[in-house]
Design a protein that fits this description.
- By secondary structure, the chain is an alpha+beta fold.
- It has a single domain, classed as Gcn5-related N-acetyltransferase (GNAT) (Aminopeptidase, 3-Layer(aba) Sandwich), CATH 3.40.630.30.
- The protein contains four helices and eight strands.
- It has helices at residues 13-24, 35-43, 87-101, 116-124, and strands at 4-7, 47-54, 57-67, 70-78, 106-112, 128-133, 143-150, 156-157.
- Strands 1, 2, 3, 4, 5, 6, 7 and 8 form an eight-stranded mixed sheet that branches.
- The longest helix has 15 residues, at 87-101.
- The radius of gyration is 15 Å and the shape is globular.
- The two termini are 29 Å apart.
Length: 168
């Protein structure tokens, strides 16, 4: 499946909020952002937001913060029916291009310990585990803190996990 990535706009907020709820939950204990939260991200000077369109519809999005020479990935989410079709990969590729252009040296993210497809996606792209954050999510699930490093030329530095992971 091919996808086109572009900056997120105000007009995208309803569908992005829907994807957010689908991916991260709609209960009061979920970490899902609403339209108001997403609107704030559009105006924060350090926030970077992109959407991916597939089949002429917004099918996924990526939200990250760029602070000095680091990027923290807050959310990568894809509509359920579009998952495993390369949309998250296209969004990450956009982020990596941006990072190289801005001479970023490291990226960080947290991912649910039980989200094996996302963990594998991040590993394929060079992220490695640096920490386990116990009871990180509102429902008590642990998170893996993952990191990706770039060398002076913008190439990804491959590193092994620094923290052994429990078996699934």
């Amino acid at each position: 499946m091919s996808a086109f990535v572009r900056p997120m706009t105000e007009a995208d907020l309803p569908v992005v909020a829907e994807i957010e709820r689908e991916a991260f939950g709609a209960s009061p204990r979920s970490n899902a952002m609403g339209e108001a939260d997403l609107r704030e991200e559009l105006v924060r000077p350090w926030s970077r937001t992109w959407v991916a369109e597939a089949d002429t519809a917004v099918s996924g999005f990526l939200l990250a913060w760029h602070i000095v020479d680091e990027i923290h990935v807050l959310n990568v989410a894809v509509r359920r029916e579009k998952r495993r079709g390369g949309i998250a990969r296209v969004l990450l590729t956009q982020l990596f291009s941006y990072a190289r252009e801005k001479s970023v040296v490291a990226m960080y993210l947290e991912v649910r310990m039980g989200n094996r497809p996302a963990i594998e996606l991040y590993r394929v792209h060079g992220f490695h585990t640096v920490n386990i954050r116990r009871s990180y999510y509102a429902d008590g699930e642990d998170a893996l803190e993952m990191r990706l490093d770039f060398d002076a030329r913008g190439a990804i530095i491959i590193a092994a996990d620094e923290v052994p992971l429990p078996e699934p």
